[in-house]
Amino acid sequence: MIKPVVWKNRNRNGLEKMAIKKADIEAVAVKPEQYPEENLLEVAFAGRSNVGKSSLLNLLTNRKKLAKISGSPGKTRTINFYRINDAFRIVDLPGYGYAKISKIESAKWGKMIETYLENRPNLVKVAQLIDIRHKPTAEDRQMYSYLQYYGLDGLVVATKADKVSRNEREKSIKQIRETLKLSLDDIVIPVSALKRTGQDELIEVLEQLTETDSE
Fold first, then answer.
1. What pTM was computed for the model?
2. What is the domain-level CATH number for residue 70?
3. Are 2 and 50 in contact (CB under 8 A)?
4. Is CB count within 10 Å lower at the N or C end of the chain?
5. Distance between the two ends of the chain, CA-based, in angstroms?
6. pLDDT at residue 42 above 80?
């Protein structure tokens, strides 16, 4: 049974507002038997290696070292489950598209991600991370196609927003929308872990996702 989410404060739209006050690693998995129970809703985060996923997760949870930041892309080789406020989970999927890993290793990671997407009924959404400075790659487009197939698409986080000007930011978001063929209802949120911007909007989306589906 899915545990209902209860929030205490309210945001500017009158919805109960979430503040992430507790975040703990709950499980590290490479196969379904190692997943935690399906008693909490989950929102997963996916993206290319070195897209800034660990920095984003640390920003969202206000923890400097919850997700380990590595100077070597491709280090995340497991699916990491983080328990948030004892109410839902954020799931960190292995990064894809790193050229220096073998094709066999890459295929293994791909299968690991696919197995999770296919067999996790409490998974409500996958946020796909795209480096705002670059046009989405073939791997990014493939991942988004996977998410569309599983009905988990619709949320894109444009990382490293501090690296471009405001004018360039709008052009980059337009390029992301066009390349991934996003609909008008799909959400793109520019975020900067360095400048600590965009996280409030993303947290609000996480709140709405978990709150709506837990009713």
1. 0.84
2. 3.40.50.300
3. no
4. N
5. 12
6. yes
- Please state, in angstroms and rounded to a whole number, the distance separating the CA atoms of residues 211 and 56: 22
Tally of residues, the chain: 215
Secondary structure string (H, E, C) spanning 112-131: HHHHHHHCCCCEEEEEEEEE
For residue 3, being part of any structural domain is answered with no
Q: In terms of residue numbers, what domain contains 48?
A: 9-213
Residue 187 lies inside a defined structural domain of this protein: yes
Kindly state the tokens that stand for 93: 């999927």
> How many domains is the chain partitioned into structurally?
1
- pLDDT > 90 in the chain, percent: 68
- Listed residue (30, 66, 42) closest to 126, CA to CA: 42
Distance CA 88, CA 100 (A): 34
Is 1 within a domain? no
